[in-house]
Amino acid sequence: MRIGVSARTLAYPSGGPKEYLIGLINALLTLDTDHELVLFYPDASHRGSFPTATEVVLPCRNRLLFDWFSLPFALRRHKVDVAFFPSSNMPPGVPCPAVVTMHDLGYFHPTLRMYKRSDTLYMRLAIRRTVRRAERLLAVSEYTRRELLRLPGAKPEAIAVIHEACDPMYKAPVEPAAVAAFCRQRGLERNFILYAGNISPRKNLDTLLAAFARVRDRIDCDLAVTGGLAWSEDFEHRVREAGLSDRVRRLGHVARREMPLLYRAATALAFPSVFEGFGLPVLEAQACGVPVVCANATSLPEVAGRGALLVEPTSVSAWAEALVRIVTDETLRRELIREGYANEARFTWSMTAQQTLTALETAHATR
Question: What DSSP line would sit under 127-177, residue for residue?
Fold first, then answer.
């Protein structure tokens, strides 16, 4: 069976969909099968990312042109038996059975404005169409599965929950000297609580800043924040308003290979997001032995298990108390680290790859 994969998300600078694609393809390529993976890239810079797969470059950086024109023709030209779309959207004109991974349905959120209006309108139409047309849908969490079932035309029997996992690099040993060198390079001179992710309204960083401002004199930590800005964010202004310019370290984009160093340097991970389809930073921190405090919202309790301190998402007082506890309560920290290791071990790319392959085989056989 020839499995065609849209690898356009490799062009993303960072984020869950890119991590998902990398982890899943690497795991699929290790399975002992006779199937062939045919990866379609938007530009030649990605060639060699997965050398044991068949790599095809469709030189088209425009998302719509790649999805709507280049890719459907390429699927037909390369005689693909089943197509896999790893990022919530199946374009029209796909000439074979299709399997689509749904990460979240943030485009349909009634109050949070997560994306530009044009992107929201387009993706609402695209996702509705995908739900009706795809042979199989893969939800990355039970929460996302329930959200999918709210859409017209969604078929329960066609939706499978297949969790993500964190990259094995987060479990690899790291030299303390490498961690120290990274901190010097990034100006992380003090202990710090880490937020890992992009800066956007759904990440709920206003609550985290307000809570941190309340307890800044009770904990000997800075707050370090990664990620790029969403189109509507003015993060520096909000930091100044909170009176935290001397205690918040904005790191911006951190290279993927450096993320294990950043996690291991952190005192704790704070993840206050009010909307997640999965929540990969929680597992990444747990794999690195970092205690986690996260919002008790959407998919996060499902992903964090017993390995995180769960907090009411928008309660500043609850977050303030949680930040103090996760920094100062050594018994709690040891318990969260122990439970975090055990929880993260429940999620493996090997299992995800095998379940995904079964879905692809089912889609091909059904059609």
Answer: HHHHHHH-SEEEESSHHHHHHHTTSTT--GGGEEE------GGGGS---HH
